[in-house]
Amino acid sequence: MMMSQVHEVGVWQKQSVAWHQAITGGTRFESNVVFNMPHTAWHANDGAYGGDELAGNLLFNVNRETTAHGVMNSYERQPYINDDGMLRDDTVGRTPTMAEFDAGATPGYTLAPPGTATVISRYRRVHRNFYVANGYSTGPYYTDDGTSRVLMWRQYNVLGNQTMSPHYSSEWIYNVGCVNAYQRELVDDSKARWKLYFYNTTIISGSANWCTVHSSTLPAFAATNITFANLTVYTPTGAEAGNTACTAHRGPDQSIVVKRAPSMAVIRALATAAMAPYPKPWDG
Predict the structure, then answer these.
(1) What is the rounded distance in angstroms from the CA atom of residue 213 to the CA atom of residue 205?
(2) Using omega within 30 degrees of 0 as the cis cutoff, is the peptide bond preceding 277 cis?
(3) What are phi and psi of 108, to 5 degrees?
(4) Are the beta carbons of 85 and 50 closer than 8 angstroms?
(5) What is the pLDDT of residue 213?
(6) pLDDT recorded at residue 24
(7) Which of 5, 81, 192, 200 gives a 20 to 30 Å CA spacing to 231?
(8) For residues 235, 241, 244 and 250, what is the CA-based torsion angle, rounded to 10 degrees?
């Protein structure tokens, strides 16, 4: 099945959701401003096809009437056979650079040859957006009900319950080169912790315990399948405590630097650098 290509630029408010898609892939959502939604801003009903790209958007003040969703929300409850997907390939590196993400990297997978049937959807690519998970939003992107293969890089993610929100069988989720500011917890749902990646990224924590997890079913956070590498962590005083679960399972780059909370000017500079070249000048 061919993937659909959609390009949207605009201002969205006072609707149920700004964008909803079902059995759809290859969409592009760029340079939108979305706010004041009863539900999530961008919503995918399933994991069919994948290959969606979201770039340069400002999304805030959503989920005003729903409480179990992120600024973005998607589901992956069942497989869809398609001929425009991917195949598992362990020879492909698992920790691409941001330049490689920009060039289309698919860590751990290769694109299937034309006409080859597969149930593995392409990576969803989320970058250079400004997400504010205020109100009832669970987090910047809730990868709900097994949503997998998500590349999030060069983002400015503010507020929310969790920085990364894997759910049940979610895997292959990346947070790279982002500024993650003031989420309450680092990871949601300790039942889902397979092939999750935090590297070359920034965490601005409201407490010394920046490595926290939401768990209603397991008593401890075992982060053995999460890669932590080259992190810059800001805590209120520059001190940290209770973060062994994260610091004991670092990737090849052992660097986790903890600093005192940055000034607003520093946060703005970090966010501006992460999101460049967005926001782009209005050309209407």
Answers:
(1) 13
(2) yes
(3) 80, 0
(4) yes
(5) 77
(6) 92
(7) 192
(8) 20
Per residue in 40-50, is it b (16+ CB within 10 Å) or e — as a string? Answer: bbbbbebbbbb
Q: Which residue has the tokens 């520059």?
A: 238
pLDDT for 253 equals: 72
Write down the pTM of the prediction.
Answer: 0.93
Peptide bond connecting 279 to the previous residue in cis, omega within 30 degrees of 0: yes
Q: What are the structure tokens assigned to 49, written together?
A: 């096809």
Q: Whole-angstrom Cα distance, residue 106 to residue 88?
A: 10
pLDDT digits (tens, 9 = 90+) for 171-209: 999 999 999 999 999 988 656 668 999 999 999 999 999
Residue 189 Cα distances to 162, 185, 263, angstroms: 10, 10, 31
CB atoms within 10 A of CB 257: 10
